[in-house]
């Protein structure tokens, strides 16, 4: 090695690189997410915190050693298939939030609330509003089966995380031409992010099937004892 | 198993079966070098982070194509470098001076006098500035081979060129640096 090469070699140890971020946490967060450019500092920090929060939720659960088998991403939602579901404590009620009249919910969220338009499905029993993170509206209607349609503006920072067991199937579907996922066949746990600065997660063990799709930036989640065909037919009428 | 440490391929196989721990074991030792490689190409910390993270995701998806007899690090660095180049092309900009030398920390009897330390620091900064002025292909070859201390094979993977091209770029770069200095 020449003197110049030796100098360059020792210079390598003296270069002040930026601190290496936790790439693995970020990669777990972004598996299946599209790369984003022009990401603001706030978003970067929020993603890092969320990744840490998600890891913490998994680590604190009996499924701590559970492996990520697959990750799916849909605007505002991350679906992770894990080999062991964490312990779930039931959320009081069908969805997060407090009951409000539909008109009030519409006044207090920044997006147009989608409603089922199919005859027979238009009688919504309860409207639940959770105003965190830009507003989450859940429409509950009865009676056989009880159905819940949750909707919120999906951002780069997922609001909703869903952990599914290997027994569940996750199928890519189209709802009115928009990408969605049909999740069926096994128990799963839903983690609702409480963006109140503390990053708690509510956990909800769901036994029904779920259809997730996105309509013009609004993420919709239809849950209940429905077959795939029934769910798709109902979702198609939600406008 | 008699305590044999897992090979890269063992960990790849376990990661392919869905063991998140195995993928972490495989990748964690290379996070610094992956990020720094991306930084040398993108010359921007945020882009480097995005590129390196996207590369980890792509590497995870591509584990099935990892060859049993291949070392993991050059394979990973090639993916990282490719992502970083894409990001830099998309950004369409050439950042200014990205590298700077950190202060040297030597204590005890071996500590140089303040004057010697100042001269050494100035020389390091001068050498680094000369590296930064090299044409891009030569700058990256020097940065990978000497500053990051990658092997010739790894440098070739990062630059996506044959080893012979790495040698010729390094040779031209060293000639140029000698002239400048």
Largest sheet of chain B: none
Q: How many domains is the backbone of chain B divided into?
A: 2
How widely separated are the two ends of chain A?
Answer: 71 Å
Shape of chain A: elongated
CATH class of the largest domain in chain B: Mainly Alpha
Please tell me the CATH architecture of the largest domain in chain B by its name.
Orthogonal Bundle
Determine the fraction of residues in helical runs of chain B and give it as a percent range.
55-70%
Instruction: Give the number of domains of chain A.
Output: 1
Structural classification of chain A: alpha+beta
The end-to-end distance of chain B, rounded to whole angstroms, is 55 Å
For the biggest sheet of chain A, the summary is:
8 strands, antiparallel
Radius of gyration of chain B, whole Å: 19 Å
| Radius of gyration over C-alpha positions of chain A, nearest whole angstrom | 21 Å
Please explain how this structure is put together.
The complex is a heterodimer of chains A (239) and B (181). The longest helix of chain A is centred in the N-terminal third of the chain and has 19 residues, at 41-59. Chain A contains 5 helices and 13 strands. Residues 32-68 and 194-201 of chain A have low confidence and may be disordered. In chain A, helix 2 (23-30) crosses helix 3. Chain A is α+β, with helices and mostly antiparallel strands and 239 residues long. Chain A is elongated. Chain B folds into 2 domains: 1-91, RNA polymerase sigma factor, region 2, helix turn helix motif (Rna Polymerase Sigma Factor, Chain: A); 107-181, Arc Repressor Mutant, subunit A. Helix content of chain B is 68%, strand content 0%. Chain B has helices at residues 8-16, 20-27, 31-42, 45-61, 72-91, 114-132, 136-147, 152-159, 163-180. Chain B is elongated and about 55 Å long. Mean pLDDT of chain B is 83; it is low at 104-108. The A-B interface holds A 2, 4-5, 7-9, 11-12, 14-18, 20-24, 26-28, 30-32, 35-37, 39, 44, 65, 67-70, 83 and B 18-21, 23-24, 27-28, 31-32, 34-36, 39, 45-46, 48-50, 52-54, 56-57, 60, 87, 90-91, 99-102, 104, 124, 127-128, 131, 142, 146-149, 174, 177-178, 181.
């Amino acid at each position: 090695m020449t003197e110049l090469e030796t100098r360059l070699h020792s210079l390598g140890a003296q270069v002040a690189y930026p601190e290496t971020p936790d790439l693995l946490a970020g990669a777990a967060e972004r598996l299946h997410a599209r790369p984003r450019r022009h990401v603001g500092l706030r978003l970067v920090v929020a993603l890092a915190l969320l990744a840490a929060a998600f890891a913490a939720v998994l680590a604190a659960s009996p499924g701590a050693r559970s492996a990520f088998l697959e990750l799916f991403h849909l605007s505002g939602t991350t679906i992770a298939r894990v080999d062991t579901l964490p312990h779930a404590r039931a959320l009081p009620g069908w969805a997060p939030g407090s009951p409000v009249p539909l008109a009030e919910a519409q006044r207090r969220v920044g997006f147009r609330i989608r409603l089922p338009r199919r005859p027979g499905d238009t009688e919504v029993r309860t409207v639940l509003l959770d105003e965190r993170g830009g507003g989450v509206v859940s429409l509950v209607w009865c009676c056989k089966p009880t159905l819940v349609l949750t909707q919120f503006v999906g951002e780069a920072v997922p609001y909703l995380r869903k952990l599914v067991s290997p027994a569940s199937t996750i199928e890519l579907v189209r709802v009115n031409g928009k990408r969605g996922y049909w999740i069926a066949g096994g128990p799963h746990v839903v983690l609702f992010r409480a963006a109140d600065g503390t990053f708690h997660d509510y956990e909800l063990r769901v036994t029904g099937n779920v259809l997730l799709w996105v309509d013009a930036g609004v993420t919709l989640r239809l849950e209940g004892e429905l077959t795939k065909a029934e769910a798709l037919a109902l979702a198609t009428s939600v406008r | 198993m008699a305590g044999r440490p897992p090979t890269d391929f063992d960990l790849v196989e376990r990661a392919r079966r869905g063991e998140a721990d195995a993928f972490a074991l495989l990748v964690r030792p290379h996070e610094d070098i992956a990020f720094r490689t991306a930084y040398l190409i993108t010359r921007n910390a945020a882009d480097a982070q995005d590129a390196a993270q996207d590369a980890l995701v792509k590497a995870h998806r591509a584990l099935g194509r990892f060859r049993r007899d291949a070392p993991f690090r050059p394979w990973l660095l090639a993916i990282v470098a490719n992502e970083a180049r894409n990001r830099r092309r998309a950004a369409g900009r050439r950042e200014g001076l990205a590298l700077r030398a950190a202060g040297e920390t030597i204590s005890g009897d071996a500590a140089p006098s303040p004057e010697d330390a100042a001269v050494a620091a100035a020389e390091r900064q001068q050498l680094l500035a000369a590296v930064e002025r090299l044409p891009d292909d030569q700058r990256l070859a020097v940065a990978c081979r000497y500053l990051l201390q990658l092997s010739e094979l790894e440098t070739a993977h990062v630059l996506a060129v044959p080893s012979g091209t790495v040698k010729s770029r390094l040779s031209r770069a060293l000639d140029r640096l000698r002239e400048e200095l």
